[in-house]
Automatic annotation (TrEMBL):
Domain ABM: start-end pairs: 2-90
Source organism of this protein record: Alkalicoccus urumqiensis
GO molecular function: monooxygenase activity
Short name of any one Pfam family annotated for the protein: ABM
InterPro entries reported for this sequence: ABM_dom (IPR007138), Dimeric_a/b-barrel (IPR011008), Heme-degrading_MO (IPR050404)
Protein name, entry field: Antibiotic biosynthesis monooxygenase
Superkingdom field: Bacteria
Keywords carried by this UniProt record: Monooxygenase, Oxidoreductase
């Protein structure tokens, strides 16, 4: 299994807005080959720190997703978000191979 964390910092007063966006996400990734799960995490001590965690069967499945047209389309839509402060945020991405469960 392979997991990817995308962590970004938003102004704390906008955290609920961002959480709402993800609660109402398109679910397009759910149809990607090898996709397993999605989690949205909020840091308890820093509520403006939001992390998206995705799980795939393998690194290859994840790379197929990020190189595909659906991934590009979703991220292009994000750039057009009306709140330009949120639209301009660049996440910190880390990728991990699951080695034990």
């Amino acid at each position: 299994m392979y997991t990817v964390f995308s962590t970004f910092d938003v102004p704390p007063e906008k955290a609920e807005e961002v959480i709402s966006i993800y609660r109402n996400r398109s679910h397009i990734v759910d149809e990607a080959p090898g996709y397993n799960d999605f989690l949205l995490l909020q840091n308890e001590k820093r509520p403006g720190e939001i992390t998206v965690q995705l799980f795939f069967d393998s690194k290859e499945d994840y790379l197929t997703w990020v190189r595909g047209d659906d991934f590009k389309r979703i991220h292009e839509l994000e750039k057009k978000y009306p709140d330009q402060e949120l639209a301009s945020i660049v996440p910190r991405v880390s990728q991990h191979q699951v080695v034990a469960r």
